[in-house]
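Bench notes, bay 3.
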Amino acid sequence: MIWLFAGSSITKLALVAGGVALLAGPLNGNQTWVAGQSRYMPPKAIRLASTANVNRLHRLPNGGVVVDLECWPMTPKAQQRHPVAAYRKAAILAAKRRQWLVGTPATDLVHSVDPAYRGKLYSEFLRLDLAGRIAPFVSVYEIQAQGLERNPARYAWFVRQVAAQVHAGNPRASILAGLSTNPGGHAVSSAVLVRDVVETKGVVNGYEINIPQAGRSCPSCGTARPEVAAQLLRKELG
């Protein structure tokens, strides 16, 4: 099982009870991927670079790169409007630098692709087949389903639907599902996250664990809750 973290999430995890033991024990291996830097990064973990702008790929080192295109200020408007073309360009640039891509396109790209759309976000993301059309250009696809995680049945439904589209577009791609300790600033219990994992473990190759905190990229995220991530990981990793 792959566990993907931002470097900042690793730091937050290390500062809660039991966090250092997790990082020194079951998370200290090549199934732990870390995008960014942290002084607490497990020595055997795989380090990835990260960008929200395809045009910056040439500045990043060889190896894995998380390409996180979202409807936010960090992603150029043209890439938000045409995410499939942006990931196609990313694949071309990455091939020149011996990079492999982890695509994490946000569901809110629906609003950029069709600014007039006012319906249900997740259903429209599926209708547009953005995952299936992006999948050929990435080695790993992360399903950003965090907004549904408080309803495990709905979360599992979306993960399964997107996974099917990814497999249709790129049968060789690995698939991760996103989990958050406080999606959009809303509290969630570790028991709910455990249920999300139970419902989807057979569908994906791993999970991205997001431990957000209010800031530029997520003004409404509120206070970080790394203890929730620690509880989930202890349950899953022993």
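Next record in the batch:
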Amino acid sequence: MIACYCATFLKPEMLHIYRQITSLTRVSPFVIAQKREEAERFPFDRIAVVGKPAMHFLRRFWFKQVRDTPWQISPGEVKKLTGILDKARAELLHIYFGHIAVHLQPLIRSWPRPTVVSFHGADVMVDLEKPAYRAATQQMLDAVRLVLVRSESLGRALVAVGCPPEKIRIQRTGIPVEDIPFRPRVWPTDGSWKFLQASRLIEKKGLQVSLRAFAKFAAKYPAATFTIAGEGPLRNALGEEAAQLGLADKVLFPGFVSQGQLRELFYRSHLFLHPSETGRDGNQEGVPNSMLEAMASGLPVFATEHGGIPEAIENGKSGVLVREGDVAALARALIEMAANPEALSTIARHGAESVRRQFEQSGQTKMLEDYYFEAIGSSSGSGEKLS
């Protein structure tokens, strides 16, 4: 029995966590959450919802505003959570997101069984410029049995924070490639290229770079269009930017789309953009899920040398990579590749093969289960360690 702690089960952008938990076969998972959301989208029965205690707000205020340290759960919450774990006869606790594990540190230290924590990208650098937060993160990393990361780049970032390298295991995103079959694209001969980016509308996704590079492309191919699927705080600013660039009639914002709708967009599109960049707060990517799914479908991906992206894309072979923030280089690569449909087809094929080889879901699920058994102590572990 494996307990999976996810503070909100689940936000719409957490499909990868749902896939991971529900694909487990050699262990039996149940979920502990503070809040249940999107129950129809993510059906799951074995879940204990433990709401925030009445004094939660005051406790957070005391820790964060008065002491300037990360808040941690109270002794009463530790007792309640330990009771749930013991009643379920859990053998291991898997905490999703590193900053959540910092808050749960009293539970990690009190509960006698092993804990693993998984980092996904944004949670690696949360508030680490503050000495108290960095110290609390280091203490949490010392307390857990294993640390799972979605890319080697995230693993290296945690080593820099102070995580022992021998604790780190690479746990890549699992993509259900059988549900996203490769389809060769027919490249337009009339200039009506269809661009796509699907992501949360936040800084690290490089959306302004995408818009500005597309503007340069559209100057040469005025029939081109660009769909930006997703929701987030940059939505209005992106709309204003598109209008300022003269692209108001060429850029579409459908908002959040379902998995079925996203796959339809994949197959209707010709080029996928994901020029990720490090945010001003240090926020960085692991390996973007939408990028991997686009590759699996046969979409050529144009991205950046950022985070874990180069671990999924070999530049010029399975995709195209440029430097972060380099609008001119991205536009140039797009224009050059649009004039070379044979090369585009080769990149599309190699991209799909790369995802099937490195990120196929059943293989990643088996690796996660191996890590669980390693942490429990029933095997020596045979997964991918940080190099």
